[in-house]
């Protein structure tokens, strides 16, 4: 997801991950922020900010992964309001519904 924060005058890229934090997510976010700053950022805007939302994170893994990154990237956990099995069933149901609607539109 991409937002613009008027107060900070920055693009804010948010990436939602279903599972636990992986160090490779930081590299991807760093790439996204570099692209945003090069291709989308306006002259009077500040550098883009990245937020990685994960289901779980190990603080030491996050600290080490961000250690030499010069871009503003944060990692945070989120909590599910539904049990994982219920959420997965809802997502599958939604995907199937979208596929059915797409198929019926083609006909």
TrEMBL record:
Domain of life: Bacteria
UniProt cross-references to Pfam families, sorted A to Z: YhcG_C (PF06250)
Span of domain YhcG PDDEXK nuclease: 1-87
Protein name per Swiss-Prot or TrEMBL: YhcG PDDEXK nuclease domain-containing protein
């Amino acid at each position: 997801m991409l937002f613009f924060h008027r107060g900070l005058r920055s693009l804010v890229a948010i990436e939602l991950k279903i599972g636990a934090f992986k160090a490779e997510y930081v590299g991807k976010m760093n790439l996204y922020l570099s692209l945003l700053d090069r291709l989308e950022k306006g002259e009077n805007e500040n550098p883009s900010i990245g937020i990685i939302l994960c289901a779980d994170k190990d603080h030491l893994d996050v600290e080490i992964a961000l250690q030499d990154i010069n871009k503003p990237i944060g990692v945070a956990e989120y909590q599910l309001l539904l049990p994982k099995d219920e959420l997965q069933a809802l997502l599958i149901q939604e995907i199937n519904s979208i596929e059915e609607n797409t198929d019926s539109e083609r006909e």
